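User: quick one, fold this
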Amino acid sequence: MTERSLGEWLAYLEQLHPSAIDMGLERSREVARRLGLGKPAPLVVTVTGTNGKGSTCAFLASLIGVQGPRVGVYSSPHLLRYNERVVIDGQQASDEALCQAFAAVESARGEISLTYFEMGTLAAFWLFERAGLDAVVLEVGLGGRLDAVNLVDADLALITSIGLDHADWLGDTRESVAFEKAGIMRAGKPALCGDLDPPGPLLHQVAVLDAPLLLRGRDYDLSVDAQGWSWYGLDPQGRVLRLEQLPLLDLPMENAALALQAYALLPLPWDEGRIVQALLATRVTGRLDRRALDWRGKSLTLLLDVGHNPHAADYLAQRLESCPVSGRRWAVFGLLADKDLPGVVAPLLSLVAGWAVAPLDTPRSRSAGELAGHLRGLGAAVAQYPDVRAALEAQCEQAAEGDEILLFGSFFCVAEALDWLARPA
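Assistant:
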């Protein structure tokens, strides 16, 4: 086989299967069998949910890793480099390692067609097995039950939240979404749910599997005030654990609380100093990601957030209300066509002085005209731009010293901003 660069592999994978999404495990399971793949590590934690998967995975990996075990994380999508999807001991997989993994999967699949995500998932599992890890944390790509990540039996199944998104694949009710996400649970293995109102299908599946269920608000919870936050949860024997006056975090503390409960069930030391160290060290690019920005002598704040559904927009609005700015807040906004435009915009409308909208760099984008028309209909001040970069620069230009620019709505939007930030001075 001719050696390919990583870029060539990714271009090849994009055209390998007739559709970008093709739910089901049969094809991936057969290729995994041909590869001889087993469990990628002795401990597997699988994480699904409408929002909060990425930060929950990051918190948990940090909590495990700070104690010494070797841990891998598989996540998606990536923002700038595909390598972000496969992390081993805190380091992104190299181009060479990913190319070797893709070549192994390609050789094994034969006549079986796999999607881009399925090829990437099997490649990640191949790399994890060969790294000799102690634990892996796996982020579900879409849903849970039929997602390729679900090939592996989870020792702990985490469900962060249950809201409406990807309706074409998961259904248009919380009940249908909960059914799909409950598919990551395994018989007799602990399941954790961070949603305060878990729908019936999830609870039914717990009963069918006889899986120990730990719920936020019942078995674990958190409280937050202006000075810090506190947490309580349960150890494997059902004894109460407490952490008081933890330092406030930039990432959602609800997701940190879920990760703490998962960690509390593991046979690892409960060292409060190291736990705090791990929480404070956790970062997720593009999620409540605040950066200082100097624009032509003006000191501005740029807040990046990949939130793209109503649940994420509600949470973002809550965080903005709790962190008022000294000046004004300007928005840069783009959204995919299959997302709930009214539901994403509504929570943030009163918090933004003016909007700059732009199409995303994908055929799946809503047009700037559609975004602008909706916002104008709500009485918002809005301007249209040909791309995210132009919209961001326009908002920087009109912003005054101390103002904040909120850029949100999509991974595509944040990726363009990160690329802009990396431009030569």
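User: anything notable?
Assistant: The radius of gyration is 22 Å.
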